[in-house]
Amino acid sequence: MTTNVTAYAAPAAKAPLERTTIPRRAVGEHDVLIEIKYAGICHSDIHQARDEWGGATFPMVPGHEIAGIVAEVGSGVTKYAVGDRVGVGCMVDSCRECDNCRAGQEQYCTGGGMIGTYNATGRDGEPTYGGYSTHIVVDEAYVLRIPEGVALDAAAPLLCAGITVYSPLRHWNAGPGKKVAVVGMGGLGHMAVKIAHALGAEVTVLSQSLRKKDDGLKLGADHFHATSDPATFQELAGSFDLIVNTVSANLDVDAFLGLLKLDGAMVNVGAPENPSSFNVFSLLTARRTLAGSMIGGIRETQEMLDFCAEHGLGAEIELIGADQINEAYERVLASDVRYRFVIDIASLRD
Description:
Layout: E1 3-9, E2 18-24, E3 31-40, H1 43-49, E4 66-73, E5 85-88, E6 91-93, H2 99-102, E7 115-116, E8 135-139, E9 144-145, H3 152-155, H4 161-171, E10 179-183, H5 187-199, E11 202-207, H6 213-219, E12 223-226, H7 230-235, E13 240-245, H8 253-257, E14 260-268, H9 281-284, E15 289-292, H10 298-310, E16 317-320, H11 325-333, E17 340-344
Parallel strand pairs: 10-11, 10-13, 11-12, 13-14, 14-15, 16-17
Antiparallel strand pairs: 1-2, 3-4, 3-8, 3-17, 4-5, 5-9, 6-7
Helix pairs in contact: 4-5, 4-10
């Protein structure tokens, strides 16, 4: 039997989000019922609620940065118990059988693709609804354990922003002796700075202006440069082993590729609304790589959470009530947040 729970949903593309109720499935044998405590606001929530990427289904309950407490478990659940601190990220299922799923890379599932936490269709044929709600039911295989070393509210953004930058930093071997540049210092970028620093890399922030320089240095950056200054691209030419581009706007790709060393890589984790272009000679002249990366798999996401707990890392957040979501969306678009909005789901229970 399904249960109706309170949520905030976008009733149509570009429409303001509003309070509503949504169905949650009954807890199955391998399911975990999570009482959501906090839900982060990701820029992709805005893109999807406004149907900027196409294919959106409404009503839509966004939210894939979920932190909460286990309220009930199915009879076959072995990993979690009532009262555990848990999280849910960007996916709630995948085929589990393709090579990528078997390798712990469920985010790259080739057996129909991963099933998103919201704006997707579950195996039961029903739409998935995200974390802007009081409860969610998720198969235990797609639930993460949040260590005690991270506060639940600061942990919520790690389930997307944290793993989105941790995965490429690990894959491209950020660490001692490596020079890493982070483009943009918003919700993703500020976590990239923290994690790259904790990994031991020399970290440079490349931001439009020097407005956030003090923050960047405090969070672990060694250097901070303004990309609005043409001298930056001359001064830093050929400097970096790895560039992690976190912004959701189109950049002069060739200019940024010119900052890479021989065999350097520029990895895009932000997703602009419009296509980007570049000159292939920007790659050929120094055997450079232009790459993309999504989130991590379940195993790597747990590794990231444990790493953050070990190093005392959490997101820098601004806690809001559910009635501030629409305002928060506008502020995200205006880059007016330091550095992640997190919804206090207790405000949905009032």
